[in-house]
Amino acid sequence: MASIFIASLTYTVPIDKIDALLAAHLEWLKAGHASGHFMAWGPKEPRDGGLIFIRAESREEAERLAASDPFITEGVANSQMIEWTPRFVGPGLEAFNG
Questions:
Q1: Residue 4 gets which letter from DSSP?
Q2: What is the pTM of this model?
Q3: What is d(CA 82, CA 52) in angstroms, rounded to the nearest whole number?
Q4: 46-55 burial string, b = 16+ CB within 10 Å, else e?
């Protein structure tokens, strides 16, 4: 059964360097969504990183997926992986029920 992981990204460079890679990052996110892995994503506030909700069979798979992010491969962000076990989800969030 697939588990849910949250990749918490932290930018390590000025925001203009992030913005230069944003189109590639968004294409990567859309491809991950199309493959059934990425459930939700968005920037943190203040804009010093972002979160990606990942459905994967294992932590290793989630980490491999996160490592292919252009932000990571280009060295402009770090990622921390958090495994999440939802105990309750409200209406409209049923996809998060592992």
A1: E
A2: 0.94
A3: 10
A4: eeebbebbbb
Q: Label residue 62 exposed, middle or buried (CB < 10 Å: 0-12, 13-18, 19+).
A: buried
Helix (H, G, I), strand (E, B) or coil at 87: coil
- Residues 28-81 have pLDDT tens digits of 999 999 999 999 999 999 999 999 999 999 999 999 999 999 999 999 999 999
Q: List Cβ neighbours of 93 (8 Å cut-off, separation of 6 or more).
A: none
Residue 27: phi and psi, rounded to 5, are -65, -40
| Helices within 1-98 (DSSP H only) | 15-34, 59-67, 70-73
